[in-house]
Amino acid sequence: MPGPFPLDDSDAALTQRLRASDEAAFEVLFRRHYDALYGFVARRLPADHADTPADVVQDLFLRLWQQRARLDPDQSVRAYLFQAASRLVIDRYRHRAVRQAFQEAEQRKPSPTVAPVEHVDVEPAVWEAINALPEPVRTVFILSRFDGLTYREMATLLGLSPKTIEARMSKALRLLRTALQPYLSLMVGALTAAWVWTLMGGR
Length: 203
Fold this sequence. Notes:
Low-confidence stretches: 2-8, 114-119, 188-194
Structural class: mainly alpha
Radius of gyration: 20 Å
Number of helices: 9
């Protein structure tokens, strides 16, 4: 897929040109980052998913072109692409993963000895709380909890210090605990509660 591209064209310069709708700059960025993004997605996308890694990366670059005018010229475009790729992968498997968790929780529930508690669907609240996190905080939370990256790996990927990553993760967990605390007592099934509590940083 990748071909030759001007070695003197930095990502920052290409981003500036892309913001001005320069198709040649877009092509260079596509060729430069395609293979790394493909491998990143392939390692995370469920093997049995209908979409292929190529589908996700194509979708990613389509969105990059559509949102070109809103790109932050001070942000690393490589970091932007990997963050966006992570969100696209999560979007493709998160609903299935949550459904499986609920199904397993229901299967493991003991037979009730008292009147059953009305089931409360906490999934919308969970994703609403995650989506409500400030963008820098949400990115770190997603990379940690869904991609399993360490603080050092995230620091390298995002061009930040491990201390900054740690501070953003702490803020994410604090905000999520506050937002989701009312739902813990309403959850049906130990597995469901454990899943949410793990997301919130419980041990």
